[in-house]
Amino acid sequence: MNNDPAGQPAPQGGFKTGGWYSGYQYWNGTFAPQAGVIHPASDQPGAGETVSEEVNVAGDVAVGNAPGTNQEYIDEQNALNNPPPSTPSTPGAGTPGAGTPGGALTPEQEEVDFQAIYKNIQENSGVKALEDEYLEKERIFIENKGKINDNPFLSEATRVGRERKLTELFNDNTANLQNKIAMRKADTEMMMNLQLKQIDFNSQQSQLAFEQLNSLIGMGAFDNASGELIAEWTRKTGLSSDIILSAVKASKKANVDTQIITSTADSGEVTISVINSQTGEIINQSSLGNVGNAEGGGGGSTAGNTEAQFMQSADTIKGKDINGQWWGEFPQLVANYAPYYSLEEIYSLYLKSSLGQQYGTPTENAGEIKGLYDYYRSGKE
Q1: How many other C-beta atoms can be found within 10 angstroms of the C-beta atom of residue 79?
Q2: Is the pTM of this model over 0.85?
Q3: By the 8 A CB rule, do 295 and 324 touch?
């Protein structure tokens, strides 16, 4: 990104997250939709809301400008770069606007209210309730701390000891709450980025992040992960914190090798699944809605994501010892991908893979393979 919304070039060193440029706040690769608005993805108070005139006036006074200078500039930027949509003419009154009968706006002309979308996502996330709960605990903590420090009958050693104990209790009681807040905020940002089409599950960067996450979970690196770490990987991968946590929880079970995969229906609905990579069992599944069309290409696609996972599995998978039975590579792939492909597609993809090109058509009994496919296609363990 070389210019801000007003057309001004980026400063030396580039745009910085949280900075304001020509009245627009920059945050993680995008600018706020309007001048004077705190970026919807920001973790600052009032995200998605317009900075008040009182705050702008205070900014004017702080730098020696006449009160109203900031607000005037912001209004000017919004007038230049965010012109209001044409008002539809009332049928039979005045001259119809250009484009459609009666001056009605076409769907292409209608503006998307991303601030309203963000506000709705934020309200549904429960972040505010969690923050209110934390603030109440913090208020009580500060109040009790003040009582300890104001007590004239306590020796210095006793005062310090009580304050340390109170602080430890507060940290212990709010640690889980702070983790939830961090993860919910990341989930909110992730959902907003989905709406803005800024998450592409089929990109090389996303595929690399998926592979890294699956490897780290398999190594046990997330077994005692903090909420901040989960939030970091939510932003990196576009996965919800619940999906990541379910994969971590399942991986802790004995002999369970989990894998997170994505698939996209022709309608554009993206589904994230945590599966047992040994059996194909779906451990957890979440729909992210219509992020993009699998054929038209707004988001990832089944042909781009699950197929890539299939090819990777075919290159690396080895027969698994499941319930005392040794499975070859092809039956293992059938078990893993029955929930996502027809049996004919699995055969076809296998023959395209390096494993299939090396060994040719699978030699397993076709009837047994069909039975295996039907078993795991049904979602049974």
Answers
A1: 11
A2: no
A3: no
Q: Compute the average pLDDT of residues 232-246.
A: 86
* CA atoms of 370 and 306, how far apart (whole Å): 21
Reference 271, options 303, 301, 251, 247; nearest CA is 301
Measured over all CA atoms, what is the biggest interatomic distance in the chain, rounded to whole angstroms? 86
Output the six-digit token pair for 196: 């803005």
Dihedral angle at the C-alpha atoms of 221, 227, 232, 234, nearest 10 degrees? 90
- d(CA 31, CA 195) in angstroms, rounded, equals 15
Q: Where exactly are the structural domains of the chain?
A: 1-83, 117-195, 200-304, 309-381
pLDDT digits (tens, 9 = 90+) for 116-167: 666 677 677 788 888 889 999 999 999 999 999 999 998 999 999 999 999 9
